[in-house]
Structure formats: structure tokens, C-alpha cells
């Protein structure tokens, strides 16, 4: 069996914080891997006019330029998400959506903070009463129940697979499934019922979730709805490693060197809290990239 590739710095998130971290880590000659899909970044869809020394420019253009810079300094970039992170006390093991395992001496989390909403009737009203945004947090409440997952990317697909360990039946609703072949295989092998081209229009129930109404007018009885739009979020990733959150339980608690409570884990950008601005993300990414690369190099000498 081939040993997983070892990196000095693994960065999650291809927004401004992640890209800046990759640029600085790679410039310090650290073996650097940047993971994530660029269009998951909120900046990708924005237009920027409040960033120092830069006139109005599209977020997409900024990210494309940052990507080119990171590559030019030696960073490797892969357009896929991380499904799982574990630590053996010295190195971090990461499972990618392709099924590949890699290891890192350090990890920088720069995945942003926003929870994408489905924006359908019943979502807000039934939050915590059957509606959840975190499979890893809430799956255990649905043993032997029928549940629905909605989303088209790795968070939804991997979440649906994980739920098969608890629920009696798992339905995945997506307009167009967009995940690696390895995840598609897992969906088939675990018996997830994939409804490609199907969209939830309404979450049904009064005091608790009882079902979902679909775009074609049909319905499905379920007791839980997991909204997993995009990549793994702060709740899932921190739950895996025991990373400390702030008092709001929304953001990672990091110090001025962007260190978390877990040695070797750093955080940068919106995931560290407001102001949710590109300027802050870039600054924190700079610090996180330098600190992570320095820490990884120090491990070599110890």
C-alpha cells in the first residue's frame, strides 16, 4: 500500500485567506497543498471596491490571480474538498473527496464561516426541530429514522453516506450531483437514494419535521432534513479535532499568530470572525501561512 503524500502545510479553502496562506507558506519553501473549490468562496461572486490600492475588480479575477501566484511559488492546488481530518498526535491525516489520504505536518483552516441556507419555507421555523446544518453533529439523533439530505457537493454526499450508519433510509436531493467518482461509488454501496435533478421546495411540519415537498409536487415523509450546501464547514471540521470555538460557537478561536488550541492547526479569514472582509482575510492568511511553514520546518529539526 502506497504511503500517503506528506506535506508541510495543508490549507483548506481557496478564498483570499487560503490563497495568501499558500503564497507565504510556499515562499518559505514549505511543501504546500491548497484544497477547495474556488467558487465556494463568497468572494468569487462579489465585486470589490474597498480593498487598499485596488480599484473595483471582480472577486473571480482576484482569486484567479491569487491562484496563479500560489502556483508560481510552488504551491500545489487541488479542486476538491476534505471529508475528514484526524490526528495521531504528531501528524494530521486528511481524507479527500476522491478517497485519497494525505498527511500534513500542519493544517490551515480558511474555509469561511457562512452557512449556506436553502431559503425555503419551514427551514427557519424548524431549525433544531429536525432541520440541521451539521451531519457530524446531529446524525445520532436519527437512528432508524428516514432522513433527507440536500446539496450537490461533497458535504451533502459524504453526509448522506455517514447517515446510513444511523438512519433506516437516506434520501439525497440535488439539482446536479457534482462530486468525485469515489463518493458516487460510496453513495451506491451504502444504499443512499439519490434524487438527481430534484429540489426541495418546502420543509413540512409544525413542531417538528414530518416531510419535504419537492419541486415536482411530490412529497417524502422524513423526520430530519440535513442542509449541506458546499464543502465541510467549521462545525464539522472542528468537531473532528476538538478545535475551540469562540463564545458564539460560530467562529474558530485563534490568537494573533492564528494558532488554535491544537498545536499545528491554524485558522484565517472569515472563519475567525468579523469583520468579514477580504483585507482581514489576507492579513490573517499571511500570518497563518508563515507561522505554519515555520512550525513545520521546526518539526524537522526536533
From TrEMBL:
InterPro entries: FAD/NAD-bd_sf, FAD/NAD-binding_dom, Ferredoxin-NADP_redctase_2. Pfam families: Pyr_redox_2. Its EC number is 1.8.1.9. Keywords: Flavoprotein, Oxidoreductase. It is an enzyme of class 1 (oxidoreductase). Residues 7-285 form the FAD/NAD(P)-binding domain. The keyword Ribosomal protein does not apply. The keyword Oxidoreductase applies. GO terms for molecular function: thioredoxin-disulfide reductase (NADPH) activity. This is Thioredoxin-disulfide reductase.
Amino acid at each position: 500500500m502506497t504511503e500517503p503524500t506528506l506535506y508541510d502545510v495543508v490549507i483548506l479553502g481557496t478564498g483570499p485567506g487560503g490563497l495568501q496562506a499558500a503564497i507565504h507558506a510556499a515562499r518559505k519553501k514549505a511543501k504546500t497543498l491548497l484544497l477547495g473549490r474556488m467558487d465556494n468562496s463568497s468572494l468569487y461572486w462579489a465585486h470589490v471596491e474597498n480593498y487598499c490600492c485596488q480599484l473595483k475588480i471582480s472577486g473571480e479575477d482576484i482569486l484567479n490571480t491569487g491562484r496563479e501566484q500560489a502556483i508560481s511559488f510552488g504551491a500545489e492546488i487541488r479542486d476538491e474538498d476534505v471529508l475528514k481530518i484526524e490526528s495521531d498526535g504528531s501528524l494530521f491525516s486528511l481524507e479527500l473527496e476522491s478517497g485519497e489520504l494525505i498527511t500534513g505536518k500542519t493544517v490551515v483552516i480558511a474555509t469561511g464561516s457562512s452557512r449556506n441556507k436553502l431559503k425555503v419555507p419551514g427551514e427557519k421555523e424548524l431549525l433544531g426541530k429536525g432541520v440541521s446544518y451539521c451531519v457530524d453533529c446531529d446524525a445520532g439523533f436519527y437512528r432508524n429514522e428516514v432522513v433527507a439530505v440536500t446539496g450537490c457537493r461533497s458535504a451533502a454526499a459524504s453526509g448522506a453516506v455517514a447517515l446510513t450508519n444511523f438512519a433506516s433510509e437516506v434520501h439525497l436531493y440535488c439539482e446536479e450531483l457534482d462530486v468525485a467518482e469515489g463518493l458516487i461509488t460510496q453513495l451506491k454501496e451504502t444504499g443512499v437514494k439519490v434524487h438527481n435533478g430534484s429540489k426541495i421546495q418546502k420543509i413540512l411540519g409544525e413542531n417538528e419535521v414530518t416531510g419535504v415537498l419537492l419541486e415536482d409536487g411530490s412529497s417524502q415523509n422524513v423526520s430530519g432534513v440535513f442542509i449541506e450546501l458546499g464543502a465541510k464547514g467549521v462545525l464539522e471540521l472542528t468537531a473532528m479535532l476538538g478545535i475551540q470555538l469562540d463564545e458564539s460557537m460560530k467562529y474558530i478561536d485563534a490568537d494573533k499568530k492564528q494558532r488554535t488550541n491544537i498545536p499545528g492547526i491554524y485558522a484565517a479569514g472569515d472563519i475567525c470572525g468579523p469583520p468579514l472582509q477580504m483585507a482581514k482575510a489576507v492579513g490573517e492568511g499571511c500570518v497563518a501561512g508563515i507561522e505554519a511553514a515555520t512550525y513545520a520546518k521546526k518539526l524537522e529539526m526536533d
